[in-house]
Design brief:
It is built from three helices and five strands. The chain is an alpha+beta fold and about 130 residues long. The chain has one domain (about 5-125). The chain has a five-stranded mixed β-sheet.
């Protein structure tokens, strides 16, 4: 199913926020630095976000509170998984898709700041 207009508007601001952070800082820093600056840019765009959101697992009528965590949840709608690595591992794409499925969200971004050009580091995923 195609993302809503609201989701698309949020997505544009997310991509712009990542671009601004990458332009200012470049590659080579710790993930936590990018997360802090990225969230600051989101707030400048008046987007509500939560960082390091615990994601409980529901399995066989049980709920497990430990294990999964979302890096950034924007407007309770879009999941952003942030990285600062040389190579993006395919399992992280699968992880983001699992997070989307477990939360019932439709749109997510895998953003790797450790790239020469940020466009190469942004992977948009729809569940």
């Amino acid at each position: 199913m195609k993302p809503s207009e609201r989701e698309e508007a949020i997505a544009k601001m997310i991509v712009n926020s990542a671009y601004v952070v990458h332009k200012a800082l470049g590659p080579g820093l710790l993930e936590k630095v990018y997360e802090t600056c990225f969230c600051h840019e989101l707030s400048k765009r008046q987007l509500h976000y939560r960082r390091q959101v615990d994601l409980p697992i529901k399995y066989d009528h049980l709920v497990f509170d430990e294990g999964l965590r979302l890096d950034v949840l924007v407007e309770e709608t879009v999941i952003c998984e942030l990285k600062a690595v040389d190579d993006v591992h395919p399992v992280w794409e699968a992880q983001l898709l699992s997070h989307l499925k477990l939360t019932g969200k439709r749109l997510g971004f895998l953003i790797n700041f450790n790239v020469p050009v940020i466009k190469e580091g942004i992977k948009r995923m729809i569940a």
